[in-house]
């Protein structure tokens, strides 16, 4: 007799990312699906990690994170956003951005609460909400530009609304919030007890001279926000699973109560290395032009295909319509593309709870040029 588990996430199965990556490996496909680079990360940062290990920084870091790293983050926030954050009370180092989002939600949610989520949405948001006994209120972004309909947000604010999740630059579409979006958000939450979870893991991967509208720029929003970041996405070391959360001291105090009994502490050598590496402003200022060049190169290559690319102003990703090629459902078309043509993508329906199908695929362009070339060479045959 087996013991029965009542699932906390009964509607969750194997993620599309795992499925498509396995399919890509099986069919030796070029993988433009999962958001991970295939090029080398910065050798200076690797050397700093090695030095930290050789210097015996191999034991537990403090629960809140290596203080010199938190100090370097505070310096960066002041430089970028002219905002003072206290490294002792406002910054917590986490094992990745996804963990930071989960812990932020777990800190504030009680059963019966509601959280506004914009779809298509990063796939961890809704399970994070539901595992805490709360409900995701799903609002669609407008097609084709994936903007927020703020009037719809106003209509869905209720006494049960505990938080709004925003994500800029946006995964999976590459859309970014503008100043007018922030003004709308400010007006909506003013005088309420609504929290903001701001997913800014692609903070430095924003293109075309657009200014990143971090919540950290706005004191009135910051006082009610958990702002989540990822070193993995910034420095192309996704396997390190290292990020951080910035929140006011009163919110951080509660956040750390969750954090200390979950992972407690993060990988020390990388924290020591990043404390030094972050002081080099060019290490993050050059990231936008680097990734923009890859985006632009991929767009140019794709002109020879029958895909219609949508705009992307940030992140690792760009979406494309295949309406000139097929009328298959996006998941079926993505599988066909992998099996028959050797290119793995992610169907955009995977980012909707009801699998809404707009006949769009997500491509990751954070790859070596030869990887992008190999993929497009195959896509041209469609």
Automatic annotation (TrEMBL):
Its cofactor is pyridoxal 5'-phosphate. SUPFAM superfamilies: PLP-dependent transferases (SSF53383). This is Methionine aminotransferase. The keyword Transferase applies. It comes from Pinibacter soli. It comes from the Bacteria. Keywords: Aminotransferase, Pyridoxal phosphate, Transferase. Pfam families: Aminotran_1_2. Residues 29-379 form the Aminotransferase class I/classII large domain. CDD domains: AAT_like (cd00609). GO terms for molecular function: transaminase activity. InterPro entries: Aminotransferase_I/II_large, Kynurenine-oxoglutarate_AT, PyrdxlP-dep_Trfase, PyrdxlP-dep_Trfase_major, PyrdxlP-dep_Trfase_small. The keyword Transferase applies.
């Amino acid at each position: 007799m087996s013991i029965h588990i009542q699932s906390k996430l009964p509607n969750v199965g194997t993620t599309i990312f795992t499925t498509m990556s396995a399919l890509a490996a099986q069919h030796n496909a070029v993988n433009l699906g999962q958001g991970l680079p295939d090029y080398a990360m910065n050798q200076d940062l690797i050397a700093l990690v090695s030095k930290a290990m050789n210097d015996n920084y191999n034991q537990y870091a403090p629960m809140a994170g290596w203080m010199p790293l938190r100090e370097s983050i505070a310096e960066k926030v002041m430089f970028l956003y002219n905002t003072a954050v206290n490294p002792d009370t406002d910054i917590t180092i986490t094992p990745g951005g996804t963990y930071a989002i989960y812990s932020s939600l777990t800190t504030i949610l009680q059963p019966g609460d509601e959280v506004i989520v914009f779809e298509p949405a990063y796939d961890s948001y809704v399970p994070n909400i539901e595992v805490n006994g709360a409900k995701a209120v799903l609002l669609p972004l407008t097609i084709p530009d994936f903007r927020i309909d703020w009037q719809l947000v106003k209509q869905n604010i209720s006494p049960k609304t505990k938080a709004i999740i925003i994500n800029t630059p946006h995964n999976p579409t590459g859309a970014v919030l503008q100043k007018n979006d922030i003004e709308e958000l400010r007006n909506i939450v003013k005088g309420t007890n609504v929290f903001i979870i701001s997913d800014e893991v692609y903070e430095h991967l924003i293109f075309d001279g657009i200014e990143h509208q971090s919540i950290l720029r706005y004191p009135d929003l910051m006082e009610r926000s958990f702002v989540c970041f990822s070193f993995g996405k910034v420095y192309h070391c996704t396997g390190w699973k290292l990020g951080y959360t910035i929140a006011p001291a009163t919110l951080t105090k509660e956040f750390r109560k969750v954090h200390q009994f979950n992972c407690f502490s993060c990988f020390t050598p990388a924290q020591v290395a990043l404390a030094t590496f972050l002081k080099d402003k060019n290490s993050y200022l050059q990231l936008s032009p680097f990734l923009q060049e890859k985006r632009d190169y991929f767009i140019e290559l794709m002109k020879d295909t029958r895909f219609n690319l949508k705009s992307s102003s940030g992140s690792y990703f760009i979406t494309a319509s295949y309406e000139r090629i097929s009328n298959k459902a996006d998941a079926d078309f993505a599988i066909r593309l992998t099996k028959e043509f050797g290119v793995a993508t992610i169907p955009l329906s995977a980012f909707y709870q009801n699998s809404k199908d707009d006949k769009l695929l997500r491509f990751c362009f954070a790859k070596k040029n030869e990887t992008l070339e190999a993929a497009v060479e195959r896509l041209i045959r469609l």
